[in-house]
Design a protein that fits this description.
By secondary structure, the chain is α+β, with helices and mostly antiparallel strands. It is built from 4 helices and 2 strands; from the N terminus they run αββααα.
Amino acid sequence: MIKESEAAAAAAAHDLLCLCHQVIDCSPVPMAAIAGEQHVIQYVNLAFCLLIGKRSDELVGIPFARIVA
């Protein structure tokens, strides 16, 4: 069973993650989160999509190098 303090910490971490997503989504600066050795795109904001000219569902899951090459 999860202790109350652990549950509160998990809830606070979730809230912070949601806030970060909101800030990134509203930013006029193009941003992309990538992961792994292949630098696979995990997340992009609207500004990045507008810069590249593709929707986020067209970008997430592909290597970053395919976008900028």
